[in-house]
Specification:
single chain; Rieske Iron-sulfur Protein; Naphthalene 1,2-dioxygenase Alpha Subunit, Chain A, domain 1; 20 strands
Length: about 375
């Protein structure tokens, strides 16, 4: 019986990209970071299948929380996600009924006579797994850094809206870079995040701190409430301060302040690298205003933005963002993307090392203002 099997986006054989096969370089470094693999609400009484960095993973809710393991029975390689979860919180293989507890150890082999010990090799590799922010996070290796911070999550003054899971046929690097690209806000999202009559990107700086980037800018934004009641502006336009933290490899936290009212809207966005040529983005829209209002417009607003972005990002070639500085033509307003690529290249080269202290990352430091970032000597492709 397989009617109960649930599988998440990306359930197909692994392909190419930075999210390489286990043991490959440089993609092996990504195994040492936490990645979202499901909404917590997706994991109930039945196994759930997902893909992470080219590995098929099975998730199930055991007696002490969600468990993540290799989705492969050691007996005949059957997908455990096709099985069931018993009353003890163990996952049961659908082929021969072998049971595996939350540590991955086999506890029952129905075909063996009573008293015969279970072979030591009869176990399933179990991955590090945590539930945080309503998401299931998995790390396939030794964690090199903690789960990225979502500071508003425990703040009772905010209301959080879980948006749709966005699955795009592109690399996680391209998906994240789309959220760093200020140049497209007013053009592609005209009337929603900016306007085509004001496309100049304000001056801004980027700072590297360990495996994170911090940057921000102040810009005018349109009042989109005629279509979606999601902005807190007094007039047709208003000033908004955007402060970003990009935690490598694939998480962004954006805190936006509506300056005329002093209210805030935040976005928390984390990407799951499937390793098969697709990736999924998990997103929260949070706010400290309109606390009694409907949540649907906020999710619908984000869904419209994502659908405007999706075909454009999926069209980009190559799908894997070039990390070499001469891979694409860069402009001064691309400084965040350029800095992100440099930092990601450093992360992949460093492998599964611990998070460095401030000042110890190669090339760390703030990126200067307009006109000097980066220099033609470092990026000869303006």
């Amino acid at each position: 019986m397989v009617e109960h099997v649930r599988q998440l986006p990306g359930d197909q054989p692994a392909g190419t990209g930075l999210a390489c096969q286990p043991g490959d370089e440089p993609g092996a470094a990504l195994r040492c970071f936490w990645h979202p693999v499901a909404w917590s609400s997706d994991v109930g009484s039945d196994p759930v299948r997902s893909w992470l960095l080219g590995e098929r993973v099975v998730l199930w809710r055991g007696s002490v929380g969600v468990v993540a393991a290799a989705d492969q029975c050691p007996h005949r390689g059957t997908a455990l996600s096709l099985g069931t979860v018993d009353c003890h919180g163990a996952i049961v293989c659908p082929y021969h009924g072998w049971s595996f507890d939350e540590t991955g150890s086999c506890t029952v082999i129905p075909q063996s006579p009573p008293g015969r010990p279970v072979p030591a090799r009869a176990r399933v590799p179990v991955h590090r797994c945590r539930e945080r922010y309503g998401l299931v996070w998995v790390c396939l290796g030794e964690p090199a850094s903690p789960i990225p911070d979502f500071p508003e999550w425990d703040d009772g003054g905010y209301r959080h809206v879980a948006c749709d899971r966005y699955t795009w046929r592109t690399s996680p690097e391209r998906m994240i870079e789309n959220f760093t690209d200020f140049g497209h806000l007013g053009y592609l999202h005209d009337g929603l995040l900016g306007t085509r009559d004001d496309l100049t990107v304000p001056a801004h700086r980027v700072e590297r701190q360990g495996w994170s980037l911090r940057y921000g800018l102040r810009m005018t934004v349109p009042n989109a409430n005629d279509a979606f009641e999601v902005t807190d502006l007094a007039g047709d336009r208003g000033w908004q301060r955007n402060d970003y933290v990009l935690t490598l490899p694939y998480t962004i936290h954006l805190a936006s302040t509506y300056e005329d009212r002093g209210t805030h809207r935040t976005l928390f966005f984390a990407v799951q690298p499937h390793g098969d040529g697709t990736c999924s983005g998990y997103c929260y829209q949070s706010r400290d205003f309109d606390l009694g209002g409907a949540d649907a417009p906020y999710a619908e607003f984000q869904a419209l933005l994502a659908e405007q972005d999706r075909p454009v990002v999926e069209s980009q070639l190559p799908a894997e963002a070039p990390l070499a500085p001469t891979g694409e033509l860069h402009m001064p307003f691309d400084k965040v993307a350029v800095t992100y690529r440099r930092a990601l290249a450093d992360l992949l080269a460093a492998g599964c090392s611990s998070v460095p202290g401030e000042g110890s990352v190669p090339g760390e430091g703030s990126v200067p203002g307009e006109g000097s970032v980066p220099s033609e000597a470092s990026v000869p492709c303006w």
